[in-house]
Amino acid sequence: MGKGTLARRLVALSPGLVLSRSWTTRAPRPQETESDYHFVTRAEFEAAIGEDAFYEWAEFHGQLYGTPRPDPSDTRRLLLEIDVQGAEQIRAKDPSALVVLVTAPNEEELEARLRGRGDEEEHVRQRLASAGGEIERGRRLCDLEVVNDDLERATTRILSILEGPRR
Ligand code: 5GP
C-alpha cells in the first residue's frame, strides 16, 4: 500500500477533506489516469510557474511536481500528497498546516513498492538512495510520523489528529 492509497482512504472517510491534484512533468505509469496527476510538458509547467499558478512546486529526481493554487472560495480542507521539499514550503507559508511523514515499514518493503510500479531500475536505485535523507528532513518538519503498514491504523491515527481539539 502506498501513500496514494492512504490519501484516498482519508478523503473517503473525512467529509470536508479534498485531495489536491498535482501537476507533473513525469510520464504516466501504465495504471495511471488523469485523476492521478495533471500530466504536462516541462514547457507547460514552466509557463505555469511564470504565471505564479502553484502554491508550491519542487523538482524531484529530475521531474517537476506542483500543487495548483487552491480556489479561495472552496472552504474544504485540502490534502496534499507531496514530497518533503513541498512540505517545507507549505509549512513556511502556513504554520498551522498539519504535516504527516508517511514511511514504509522497512527498507525491503520500500524497495518492493518502488519496484512494483514498473519504473526504470536506475530510477528505483536513485529513489532508494535518497530516501534516508528525505526521512531525516521529514522528521525535522513533521507533526506526526505514520508507518504505512496497516491502512486502517494509519488512517485512524491521522484522522484523530486532524479532527482533534487542537485543529
Ligand atoms: P511519483 O513520481 O512517485 O508519483 O512522486 C514522486 C514524489 O513526488 C512523491 O514523493 C510524491 O509525493 C511527490 N509529489 C507528488 N505531487 C507533488 C506536488 O504537487 N508537489 C511536490 N512538492 N511533490 C509532489
Structure description:
It is a single chain. The protein is of the alpha/beta class and 167 residues long. It has a single domain (3-162), classed as P-loop containing nucleotide triphosphate hydrolases (Rossmann fold, 3-Layer(aba) Sandwich). The protein is built from six helices and eight strands. It has helices at residues 3-13, 42-50, 84-93, 107-115, 121-141, 151-162; strands at 17-19, 23-24, 38-39, 54-60, 63-68, 77-79, 100-103, 144-147. The strands form three sheets. The protein has a four-stranded mixed β-sheet with strand order 3-2-5-4. Strands 1-6 form a two-stranded parallel sheet. Strand 4 (54-60) and strand 5 (63-68) form a beta hairpin. Helix 1 packs across helix 6 (151-162), helix 3 runs parallel beside helix 5 (121-141) and helix 4 (107-115) crosses helix 5. The two termini are 27 Å apart. The model has no long low-confidence stretch (mean pLDDT 95). Guanosine-5'-monophosphate (5GP) is lined by residues 22, 26, 56, 58, 60, 65-67, 81-83, 85-86.
